[in-house]
Amino acid sequence: KTFRPRKKFEPGTQRFELYKKAQASLKSGLDLKAVVQLPPGESINDWIAVHVVDFFNRINLIYGTMSEYCTEKSCPIMSGGLRYEYRWQDDSKYKKPTKLSAPQYMCMLMDWIEMLINNEDIFPTRIGVPFPKQFQQVCTKILTRLFRVFVHVYIHHFDSIINMGAEAHVNTCYKHFYYFIREFSLIDHRELEPL
């Protein structure tokens, strides 16, 4: 229920070319700290947009592969251990931070991100259409919430990841994500404390 089909970039667009550049860099075995740096002459908003969509796809896949272990019974509260509880708020149905189970939170999160990245007013795909002024703020909120998926998976379900033999993939994805958010200061450092 929380798995979403991959969001793709249209071939021939600037974002598709940036996506190919980012993927080629990752596959080349380069240092991930260097891979996340903005390529010369590229727009920072385009670079962030490409990565936000890519991280959404990857993290959605990670959660989807182990979601059968994250149930209402095993995870009645969306948390990152005993010290961190994440509540849902979305300015429409949940106007106040609301306690949800981890599966409910994940479903709300994936729906919410999918709605944002498919919104042309926030993530424009046509050449010459500018990003909105609040674009990086929206991306910060998306990335902060995606980070919480890592927190939950690492603290509550890493044994399942190991049993599936997926820990190398999850660790690489997390490392890429971490270097990217640090490179552009996209998440408040306090949010990073659980990991």
Describe this structure in words.
Keywords: Kinase, Metal-binding, Transferase, Zinc. Zn(2+) binds at residues 70, 75, 152, 157. This is MOB kinase activator 3C. One of its GO terms (molecular function) is kinase activity. Pfam families: Mob1_phocein (PF03637). The structure is a single chain. The chain is mainly alpha-helical and 195 residues long. It has a single domain (44-192), classed as Up-down Bundle (Butyryl-CoA Dehydrogenase, subunit A, domain 3). 53% of the residues lie in helices and 0% in strands. Helix 3 runs antiparallel to helix 4, helix 3 packs parallel to helix 5 (135-164) and helix 3 (44-66) packs antiparallel against helix 6. The chain is globular and about 50 Å long. The model is unreliable at 1-6 (pLDDT under 50).
Low-confidence stretches: 1-6
Number of helices: 6
Mean of the pLDDT scores? Answer: 87
What is CATH's topology name?
Butyryl-CoA Dehydrogenase, subunit A, domain 3
The termini sit apart by 27 Å
Instruction: Please identify the structural class as seen in this structure.
Output: mainly alpha
The domain tally reads 1
Rg measurement, Å: 17 Å
- Provide the CATH superfamily: MOB kinase activator
In CATH terms, what is the architecture? Up-down Bundle
Beta-strand content estimate: under 5%
List keywords for this structure.
mainly alpha, 195 residues, 6 helices, Butyryl-CoA Dehydrogenase, subunit A, domain 3
